[in-house]
Write a structure and sequence with these properties.
The structure holds two protein chains of two kinds. By secondary structure, chain A is mainly beta. Chain A contains four helices and 37 strands. The chains are: A mainly beta, B mainly alpha.
Amino acid sequence: MTLETRIRSALREAADTTPVPERWDAIVGAGARRPRRRKVLLATAAALAVGLALVTTLAVVRDSRRAVVVSVGPPHRAPLVSFDDGPTVDLGALVDGRLAFVSGGRLYVADAREGSARRLTEAGEASALAWSSDGEWIAFRVRNAPGYEDYTTWIARHDGSEARALEGMSGTYAWSPTGHRLAIASYCCTEERRGSLHLVDPNGETHDFGGVRAVAIAWAPDGSSIAYTSLPILPTPETSTSIWAVDPDGGEPERVADGVALIGWSPDGRSMIRQDMSGRTLLVDLTTGESHAIGPSASSALGDPAETFAWSTQTDRLAVAVSASATEGGIEAIAVCRSDGSACERRADGDEGLISRPAFSPDGEYLTYVRTGRRTSLRLLHIPSGPSSELDDMGDTDALAPVNAWLADGSVLYRRGPELRLVDPATGRSRRLASPIGYLPAGSSVDQGSPAGAPVAAWQLTARRE
Amino acid sequence: MERAEIDGDPPAPPTVAGLEDLYALSYGPMVRLARLLVGSPEVAADVVQDAFVQMQRRWSTIREPEAYLRRTVVNGCRSHHRRRALERRTALPVPDAITLPAREVLDAVEHLRYRERVAVVCRFYLDLPDAAIADLLGCRVGTVASLVHRALARLRLEIEP
């Protein structure tokens, strides 16, 4: 009996022996206990919120040169923040004032300057939106039939023109950091095509790298290389997963290192973070091929790069969420290392819980991160000198991604509950930047790409010059 | 974003009767799924109960009830898992009715990290494709493959030393 068969059999046996109580009445009762007055209050609050949103939108459109949209998507997405008169912190569903989102399964692009939304697709259920780095193109996937996890990858210009399906290329994809070439690790269709790596130029040709068993991809920061994780069909101790890199302009793939998960490149393109079979996080020096282990053990959350590690702007430091001890997987510390993965120092903050979204200050001297335990807080660490301190309580973050991003002026953008706020780390003084004009909890019909209705908040606000 | 600016009709919300149907069809399977994720049948029943209560409150806004329910249950199990980690508890009860070989596998699954456990249960119990598991876990498809790969390697070491 194979391992897979044993697992299936055991899980089925455990499931079949699970007692299932009858509790329907309790659910109906829970609904019936809701007072009618609460519904009226909610309806009134919703009407007021819509009115406020209309006023805010009109105000923003009137001052369109300085309009900003800040949006936060599902937990696995990076915070999406873009300022007209400042640096772009990160790009995802939002590019250059345009926000792509899905409503009723259809793909829309909203223009913050015009204050309007345009529908790009007519049929199907769109999801997994990704803008090209130049904002000209958007990639998304469309479910082929309701209820089936079967998708086709599409690309279209931002205005909806030149939309076309990339037949036989369903999978995970990433745009090049320069220009607009789309790399796709396909899990589509047939066993022969599964794991193929495709490189699509919307204005040119498509290159296929077949048989590479690619399951995860990451572009080098300068776009000169694509790294991917190659995964054997049935893993055994003898068939180790490996990381490969290929020149997008041609050439044969080259093995970079053995490991399990490809996690990401350093900003200077000289190093790469990966995980080994035991879950340790390793830093690979691409010039020498040497690896350094980071921390005592890796965070269980690794695999979502934006959530678990960060490089300083100067690429001289690296911060990674690591397990605080070998036995307590749910308790994490932050490890700060040199860029080569050496001299890692684990900085425990005395609290219990998980760490996510580390971010370095522009000068690389400070680090902020989100600590989620019995409550969620934004913490500040002065790297040379010592222990971290709490900057603010982040309130009820529910399923929304926390925001933690340093701006060029040294302030930190974060989210406290539904509010978007700025805090000055030097003084600890915090001020509200904006309340959301739209806040859609999980299960709403509008999302930024997660087909299961992940929550989204969107703010429109005016950028301020200090 | 103003909903009023969006052209096109939104999908019709499901009916309350639909929730009852969903309950009749899904309550048992969801309890069994939750039991594989949290270990305890009692906790599993509570998690699924809470999920249905949550759905009942938001029913008019839910567009894909089955997917929403599955995600809510997995998230509820994760919350339990995190609380458990913080409370430094260890062993979960395994019913006596399970055979010894199955118990060995379940013990090994129990030692997996939560995301690995979800990936294994969803692939080998629910037979979900990687894209659906990625949606459940809120990660990339490639991450799912890695999670399953690593989980299988650990299970192999523990079950087939």
